[in-house]
Amino acid sequence: MTAHPADAPVVTRFAPSPTGYLHIGGGRTALFNWLYARGRGGKFLLRIEDTDRERSTPEATAAILRGLTWLGLDWDGEPISQFARRDRHAEVAHQMLARGTAYKCFSTKEEIDAFRAEAEARGTYALFQSPWRDADPATHPDAPFAIRMKAPRDGETVIDDQVQGRVVIKNETLDDMIVLRSDATPTYMLAVVVDDHDMGVTHVIRGDDHLVNAARQQMIYDAMGWAIPVWAHIPLIHGPDGKKLSKRHGALGVEEYQAMGYPAAGMRNYLTRLGWAHGDAEFFTSEQAKQWFDLKGIGRAPARLDFKKLENLCGQHIAAGADAALLSELQAYLAASGQPALTNAQSALMLKGMSSLKDRAKTFPELLEKARYITVSRPISRDEAAEKSLDPVSRGILKSLTPQLRNASWTKDDLEAILTGAAAENGIGFGKLAAPLRAALAGRTVSPSVYDMMLVIGQDETIARLEDAAA
Ligand code: GLU
After folding, report:
1. Which keywords does UniProt give here (predicted)?
2. Fewer beta carbons under 10 A from the terminal one: N or C of the chain?
3. How many C-beta atoms lie closer than 10 Å to residue 13's C-beta?
């Protein structure tokens, strides 16, 4: 058993099977690999495990790449197709033959079934033991054969896992697995090892549903005399109730979170914390995560999805986001969710108002709701509460305001003086005046501050909306 030199440059990979969308668990696995590599100046590679020709589709590959791209997980080089490497996999199977760590097995399916049936009848282990394991090549028939790995029959295989600890698998529980089928197609187990070796992968970070595979894969590494990667098998994600994650817990696909309008930075922060901890840090940037991420911080218990926490972190990331970056992410959200794009004029106003819009919005739909005063056009439709606040008295006040607003210098101080003055003149508190103003400007009684809205949309538009509402 050999390992990569401790100072070898880090290479990680994400190896999805393209049979559907990018699952939230897959997204987290990719993220952990990305963080680990990026924090160490290493490489993060992508391999599409498309050997199952029946279940793999180009649409699924495209969906996975879209999901990774949205999450901001850039990979090095071109994605590698596992299927395209099948000749190389077969070549390695033959090298194993030449090294004597694999053998040709001529047993037919019927013979194997009969072996199992007999073993079961005797009540012994039903693992197939090929009669060809130690056969003299001179006795080989001219018939189709599979290549089987000559797995050690006794002793144990130890996976030194960075998350699970020392995992011991008794070799007698593993059979001589087939590495190359009789139709010359490689098995999945062989393909993964050959690819990881050829790609120079030093760290395999993946779901713990692959832990048993690691034992078999380690045998292949040993059979080829290749360096074994560092293993880190991470617990799967569970639902808020602690049960295995399923559709009834809510969204499972990464792209669904994009469509719900969560910011990618918040999603990365949340997924990083899902099963990994750095002291009690909750809110952090990806730059911090890259510096901090390590395998020691990965927990052994399955992490539970917590939508409240996700929303909370997303709100913090929106609030902390740079205005221009938020605007472009908002535009991407609109496109991804099939909504009309912002016009240039709206984008300009959005940027102007972003500092107040981004405050206390947990998702882009919430931010858009706050930005309603920017995206609406006259005449502004109003909800019931807004309509109600525009009673005759309020309309009268709005009307009386327009001459003063026409002469205002359009600074916050000036506007404040005018509006508080008007409230005092009419013997009402500012709060009473704010409701009809919000109704006039945004068509809602809940909106960003009246001053923010007036300053963003400007003098002419403000007066026009007030006149509309007063009419
Ligand atoms: N293709 C496997 C999966 O999607 C991952 C295999 C691996 O990471 O080694 O579960």
Report:
1. Aminoacyl-tRNA synthetase, ATP-binding, Cytoplasm, Ligase, Nucleotide-binding, Protein biosynthesis
2. C
3. 26
DSSP conformation letters of 303-346: EE--HHHHHHHHHHHHHHS-HHHHHHHHHHHHHHTTPPPPPHHH
Is residue 13 within 8 A of residue 274, CB to CB? The reply is: no
Q: Ligand 1 centroid to 447 CA: how many Å?
A: 47
Q: Cβ contacts of residue 133 below 8 Å, gap of 6+?
A: 103, 105, 148, 150, 176
| DSSP per position, 107-169 | --HHHHHHHHHHHHHHTS------TTTT--GGG--SS--EEEE---SSSEEEEEETTTEEEEE
Classify strands 165-170 and 102-105 as parallel, antiparallel or unpaired.
unpaired
Q: Above 90 in pLDDT, residue 123?
A: no
Please state the atom number of ligand 1 nearest to the C-alpha of residue 49. 1
Say how far apart CA 445 and CA 383 lie, in whole Å: 8
Whether 30 is in the pocket of ligand 1, judged by its Cβ within 6 Å, is no
Tell me what pLDDT residue 12 has: 98
For 375-419, what is each residue's pLDDT tens digit? 999 999 999 999 999 999 999 999 999 999 999 999 999 999 999
Sign (positive or negative) of CA dihedral 63, 65, 68, 70? negative
CATH architecture of the domain formed by 83-234: 3-Layer(aba) Sandwich (3.40)
Q: Is 247 a catalytic residue?
A: yes
Cα 257 to ligand 1 centroid, rounded to whole Å: 22
pLDDT value at position 440? 97
CATH of domain 376-471: 1.10.10.350
**Do 303 and 237 form a contact (C-beta atoms < 8 A)?**
yes
Q: pLDDT tens digit string along 24-35?
A: 999 999 999 999
Segment 273-325, tens digit of pLDDT: 999 999 999 999 999 999 999 999 999 999 999 999 999 999 999 999 999 99
In this structure, what token pair is assigned to residue 420? 């508080």
Secondary-structure breakdown of the chain: helix, strand, coil percentages, each rounded to the nearest 5: 50, 15, 35
| Domain-wise residue ranges, the chain | 2-81+237-313, 83-234, 376-471
Contact 146, 50 (CB under 8 A): no
From the candidates 104, 109, 170, 247, give the one annotated as an active-site residue.
247
Backbone angles phi, psi at 455, to 5 degrees: -65, -35
